[in-house]
């Protein structure tokens, strides 16, 4: 049975696209608006990027690097920024604005925008309606729109079918007849030619972007009873008792005709009930791996009314649970049958010119979309991320060599689906940390799975490429330590770097130090686990010894750059210098000075109104969860929902731009509140908020190859069950001695220390842990 925190529902249709209910197979996506007389389902395909710049390339500029470094060593920040951006920043950027009156670049970037495929319209002929309800059931992945019209109960059911990989919509009237029309269309686009074909079997819309790729949208239609007539690219239906519409989309992105991807214009050959059952079984295999139960007295009110109540001060701690469940659903809908990871808007976009091209931002946004996957029992979806990054490696090698004269790989700060590692954001793009940050996810997948084959064949080869880049990019500094220059703290600016550029270029930014330390540490550990590259291992260990240390400022804060600059925007949306706190694991209670300095830096950001975008507030919630402050984490998670979400809980970037990263970052925050496992040590309920005094969660995954189930009451763990996927010593962070029993109830010997309890576990066996 679906509970109130497992569904979104409303008493009215969507008033705008962002108020629609999203469905998706990963390859295909739809936004169901729930209109009464006229329904619109906005359609997308994950590979539908215009394709105009899919063969773009980099230029030779490596010879300019020494001069830029010299300007930085002389602290000539503005001149260095000019030289660095001219050499490595790309051609696209921003024109003059009040914030940057000198202007940066008026040339458009060559990042292709993610595009809408079109719209499916359904228009029914009836008059006044009542008893309207629009709902997304997160347990089944189904959207239903129901109402009564002239005595008839109209029901529209839409599923993104995960075995058919199509969008299916069924219309019924409880055995009574209905009439209406169905058609396809797309917003006017002068750079896209369209061709329509309509037969009694369905509708086809074919398109081609000027200088880009082609696509095809088809909607097969099966009508039971009544008659079907073709008229002006529309199918007109009279006196039907049921109608099934099957939408598929194809593109030429991979060099094949779009029609080949779509296949025949036909609905699936099975009864609706069987189609629904097959979908639900497959959907449960994706979504059902984790279940969080919080016995809270949550209202049965529509979701938008719950949002209004919380904004007006009425407590509703279950709303965060709904947001968490919705985040996992959005990952499934973005990835289940997909080949690409979620972009800035997941797989949903209605605009020809979406904000930031609805692209892949590699300095937080793409990574945040993937934060909940490993711990949240959605680890299979990381495959799309890995394929996406591996596609970039060949061109990333060329970019590293031509731009910076380095071996290894360079990835840009923003990009699209085409695997081209070209900097396209003049003013922002002089940053070399993107590949290292993405390398973290390769390492995480090994940590959570303990899959040595994956480490050897995929994770280590990628990590090694990044380490090779650092071998060449890092140079000797005047103090004998290694120097990272140019260096950026995305996307922040310090006083004294001039006002012509939105981002300051400096030396040894804290994030760059942390990224270098992390990727080299993982490279060293991988060589030791795999028994390979002994010489490289020694080189990387020496580099680790010579990396700059992180610094603490006069106010007790962690310094963002190599010296104590004043910040132009103390409440900046990015927390780049706190990367080592989260998502990294370099700043922990075992490094108390840095731990306290990171906490102080977080405070200072928030004191200056930081966290003022959806994804930034989600990151804030993750920080407090990592710090063990559950009430603060829930506070910021609630603010994320009430201040930065539509009534359908889609995350917002000011002024009102949909970005999915905040949804998924908020989901990650809940996982961090329940279980942490950095350094492969388990910490149960490390940041449990007082508003969730009792609960149960099954299906959590932890670094070290664990699956974990937790039960708690009165704010205290009552029992944990865990299973490891290999024989090992299990370490649990705790201040209380634990009792452990195996699957047969026999006690297991535990080695108690001040902060860690350790005991042996066998692969595949379940163990119960109690205080």
Describe this structure in words.
By secondary structure, the chain is α+β, with helices and mostly antiparallel strands. It has 3 domains: 8-51 and 115-288, Beta-galactosidase, Chain A, domain 5, CATH 2.70.98.50; 60-109 and 394-610, Glycosyltransferase; 683-770, Immunoglobulin-like. The protein is 30% helix and 24% strand. Strand 26 (695-702) and strand 27 form a beta hairpin. It is globular. The model is unreliable at 95-103 (pLDDT under 50).
Separate helix tally? 16
Q: Which structural class do the helices and strands define?
A: alpha+beta
Distance between the termini: 33 Å
Residue ranges: pLDDT <50 for 5 or more in a row? 95-103
What is the total tally of β strands? 34
Portion of residues in helices?
25-40%
* Percent strand: 15-25%
Mean pLDDT: 96
Main-sheet strand order equals 1-6-7-8-9-16-13-12-11
Q: Over all CA atoms, what is the radius of gyration?
A: 27 Å
What is the fold named in CATH at topology level of the largest domain? Glycosyltransferase
Number of domains: 3
Describe the sheet with the most strands: 9 strands, antiparallel
Global shape = globular
By CATH reckoning, the class of the largest domain would read Mainly Alpha
Q: Which architecture of the largest domain would the CATH scheme give at its second level? A: Alpha/alpha barrel
